[in-house]
Amino acid sequence: MVCTGLRLGSSIQQLQTAWMYTKLHDTALRYCLILNKLSMACYLLADHAVWAAKLGLIAADASRLGRIAARLWLISLIAALLRDAVEILRALRTEMTKHRHGNHTGDFQYSLMPQSVSIITRIAANRPLLFDCVKNAADIFLPSATLGYVNMGDWFHGLMGMISSYMAILTIWDPALKLSP
């Protein structure tokens, strides 16, 4: 509960970041990032309301607010994963174009294996995208379990939380690993 109290300003920061993203020229990236930041800001506000309800500061149903917060967190994570998918599709398109132009005969029956390895290598080389994708993929199980969309054991819940936290710590430790627009 102390952590919740300490991040009261995060909602405002998320709204400011969403406003900054309105100026992005890339439409898909702009919509994904704005949806991510707005839903994260609303999630944080709902989470603060849960905290206040549990402390008795406001008269509200903490479990209902918790479900609302989990839905907002899930929306934020889906938007983040959509953003990751957009970036991966761009890398895929770039690699496919490179292979088509590299094939001078015009014959498209080149081997799929080297092309697949090249695409995977290109995506894995983008470490910020890889870290963000792994973090978001691990995170998505947490609100999904809270909402009852997936049934997982405590060990899996803990593992996903640990993976997500580890990826977040690495991006704090090395800011070059943080995915930026």
- Counting DSSP E segments of at least 2 residues, the number of strands comes to 0
Given as residue ranges, the uncertain stretches (5+ residues, pLDDT < 50) are none
Strand content: under 5%
Task: Look at the helices and sheets and give the structural class.
Answer: mainly alpha
Q: Using only CA atoms, what is the Rg? A: 20 Å
Distance between the termini: 32 Å
**Total of helices:** 8
Q: Please estimate the helix content.
A: over 70%
Q: Look at the structure and give the mean pLDDT.
A: 87
Sum this structure up briefly:
The protein has 181 residues and is mainly alpha-helical. It has 8 helices and no strands.
Describe this structure in words.
- The structure is a single chain.
- This protein is an all-alpha fold.
- The protein has one domain (2-177).
- 77% of the residues lie in helices and 0% in strands.
- The protein contains 8 helices and no strands.
- The chain has helices spanning 2-6, 10-21, 27-55, 62-102, 112-125, 127-139, 141-146, 154-173.
- Helix 2 packs antiparallel against helix 3 (27-55), helix 4 (62-102) packs across helix 5 (112-125) and helix 6 runs antiparallel to helix 8.
- The protein is globular.
Task: Walk me through the topology.
Blueprint lengths: L1 H5 L3 H12 L5 H29 L6 H41 L9 H14 L1 H13 L1 H6 L7 H20 L8
Helix pairs in contact: 2-3, 3-4, 4-5, 4-6, 6-8
Descriptive key words:
77% helix; mainly alpha
